[in-house]
Amino acid sequence: MEYNIIHNEEKSRFETEVEGLLSLVDYRKRGNVFLVTHTEVPLRLEGRGIAAALTKALLDHIRKSGYKVCPICPYTKIYIQRHPEYEDIVAEHEE
């Protein structure tokens, strides 16, 4: 299923609304690195691939823009492990 995913730069997140409920992936930008901090899908919407669609949109944006990603969020880490085509844009995490 396709979702209408929006890059809400003002709130530093990618988001989509399904059945009136908001799902999102939050990030912080540090230089040329997106630190992905949180993925949230309401319980009622779980299992529909929404988190995967949001994460893919975020990672595709990062790649297209020439940035790197630092996956702090456990979901994003697992997503990249399962989709090694994104490993080339992973940056080392520096806190």
Structure at a glance:
This protein is 26% helix and 33% strand.
The proportion of residues forming helix, as a percent range, comes to 25-40%
Shape: globular
Number of strands: 5
Q: Tell me the distance between the termini.
A: 36 Å
Largest sheet, in brief, is: 5 strands, mixed
Which blocks of ≥5 consecutive residues have pLDDT under 50?
none
**Roughly how many Å is the radius of gyration?**
13 Å
Write the element-wise H/E pattern from the N-terminal end onward. Answer: EEEEHEH
Average per-residue pLDDT, rounded, comes to: 95
Supply the number of helical segments: 2
State the oligomer.
Answer: single chain
Task: Name the beta content range.
Answer: 25-35%
Structural class: alpha+beta
* Strand order in the sheet with the most strands: 1-2-3-4-5
Your description of this structure?
Helix content is 26%, strand content 33%. The protein is of the alpha+beta class and 95 residues long. The longest helix has 16 residues, at 50-65. The chain has a five-stranded mixed sheet. It is globular, with a radius of gyration of 13 Å. The chain is built from two helices and five strands; from the N terminus they run E-E-E-E-H-E-H.
